[in-house]
Design goal:
Layout: E1 15-21, E2 24-30, H1 35-64, H2 70-95, H3 100-122, H4 128-131, H5 134-142, E3 146-147, H6 161-186, H7 206-238, E4 242-243, H8 249-252, H9 256-263, H10 266-271
Antiparallel strand pairs: 1-2, 3-4
């Protein structure tokens, strides 16, 4: 399955065209998404869910049920957290994963699980109703998107799964198109739309700010694409209502606290509150 390392882009254009700009010809082309990439990403997510479910059951038995005891802290800090942090490095090496997105996905999910273990030890962020149900706790523990809860601390379920799937699919399609466009623009120029020669004395120079803005927007699209796909699958399979990982942080934020607290990577923001 991982024979294709996906570390170099060898795809060929299905449609190509040339645009004359300033006396130079700019050659552009449209390439299709790699089927091997999506197959490998699906396999990585299934593997994470399987391992994460086992970790969740272990955490529920030896940490949540023994919370505030010496055993819970020894198991959490001595076994679960080191295991969740170190495991991605071994998986990446054993499976010989070379693609940057697949490596980030592998490491990111287990990093979230390590933080959720901290929440389990200290009794924060997770509703009691979810902690006491094995199936629900496994879903919460393995999810890379934020889940919605009602006032009783139980999952909120969607009324129409097909409608939610269509909405998530629209968000996914839009973000994938924008993501592909941004990569096509930024990758050939080294992810720096503006030259920054002799500008190191000022991090507030408009060129430096715009270069960082473009990278932040690119990362936002990566998070939105991944969370939309996962949220769509989770909502269709379980019916649980999910939230997007990002909420238009680059253009919808009205203050730094609004950006970091309610719009940018809400999953990490929530687990860091432990």
């Amino acid at each position: 399955m991982f024979a294709n390392k996906l570390d170099t882009d060898v795809r060929t254009s299905v449609v190509s065209f040339t645009i004359p700009i300033g006396g130079d010809d700019i050659h552009l082309g449209l390439v299709l998404s790699s089927l091997d990439f999506w197959n490998q990403l699906t396999l990585v997510m299934i593997m994470q869910a399987a391992i994460g479910s086992l970790i969740a059951l272990f955490v529920q038995s030896f940490i949540i049920k023994k919370r505030d005891s010496l055993t819970s802290y020894l198991v959490g800090y001595g076994i679960v957290i080191p295991f969740a942090i170190c495991l991605p490095f071994y998986l990446i090496e054993i499976l010989e994963i070379k693609n940057t997105v697949l490596m980030a996905t592998t490491g990111g999910a287990f990093a979230l699980q390590a933080l959720r273990c901290v929440a389990a030890m200290h009794g924060t962020t997770t509703p009691t109703a979810v902690e006491m149900n094995r199936f629900h706790y496994c879903i919460y523990f393995c999810s890379i998107v934020d889940l919605e809860y009602n006032k009783q601390g139980r999952f909120v379920y969607v009324r129409n799964r097909s409608q939610v799937a269509i909405e998530k699919l629209k968000t996914l399609a839009k973000s994938v198109v924008l993501l592909g466009s941004m990569y096509s623009i930024l990758e050939p120029i080294g992810y720096k739309p503006f030259e920054e020669e002799n500008l190191y004395y000022s991090t507030l120079h408009w060129k430096h700010v715009l270069n960082n803005f473009s990278l932040a927007y690119l990362w936002h699209l990566c998070l939105l694409s991944g969370s939309s796909a996962f949220g769509m699958i989770l909502a269709c399979v379980t019916g649980i209502k999910t939230k997007d990982m990002t909420n238009n942080p680059m253009f919808g934020s009205c203050s730094p606290s609004d950006f970091w607290g309610r719009r940018w990577n809400n999953v990490v923001h929530k687990v860091l509150k432990v």
